[in-house]
Amino acid sequence: MRTLADLAAQQGVGIDHYTRLKPYAAEGFPAPVSSEGSRTQLYDGEQVDAYLLGKPVPPLPETEDDGDLLDRRECAALIGVSPRSWDVYKNDPALIEARIEAGGSSTGPAAR
């Protein structure tokens, strides 16, 4: 997964410049894989790499994978709470080991 900051760094520009130019809004650029309304937009690395190399963008896998990460909204929905409640629950010692921080956005277990 890559954040906008990751994409900016990959292309050798600062995040402010990158978000002003919005190359991620160009036709054909891979859509974010994060949930709608997510604080942090996440992009599939393979898709972005292919796009930047001018190659066909591979489709996302149709099947779920144990390596898939859930974003904040997806974690909250999975356990039936609001995203704000997830912000509190994510600090529970039982969840801390399974948590991964992607671009400052706390994601849940790799169990989609």
Question: In words, what does this structure look like?
Answer:
The chain has 112 residues and is mostly helical. It is built from six helices and two strands; from the N terminus they run H-H-H-H-H-H-E-E. The protein has a two-stranded antiparallel ribbon. Helix 1 crosses helix 2 and helix 4 packs across helix 5. The longest helix is centred in the middle third of the chain and has 8 residues. It is globular, with a radius of gyration of 15 Å. The mean pLDDT is 84.
Number of strands: 2
Please state the average pLDDT score.
Answer: 84
**Spatial arrangement of strands, main beta sheet:** 1-2
Largest sheet: 2 strands, antiparallel
Principal-axes shape call:
globular
| Number of separate helices | 6
Give the DSSP E fraction (strand runs of 2 or more residues). Answer: 5-15%
Order of helices and strands: HHHHHHEE
Briefly note the structural class of the backbone.
Answer: mainly alpha
Q: Whole-Å distance between the termini? A: 15 Å
**Low-confidence sequence ranges:** none
Query: Measured on Cα atoms, how large is the radius of gyration?
Result: 15 Å
Helix content: 25-40%
Short description:
37% of the residues lie in helices and 5% in strands. With 112 residues, the protein is mostly helical.
Key features of this structure:
112 residues, mainly alpha, two-stranded antiparallel sheet, 6 helices
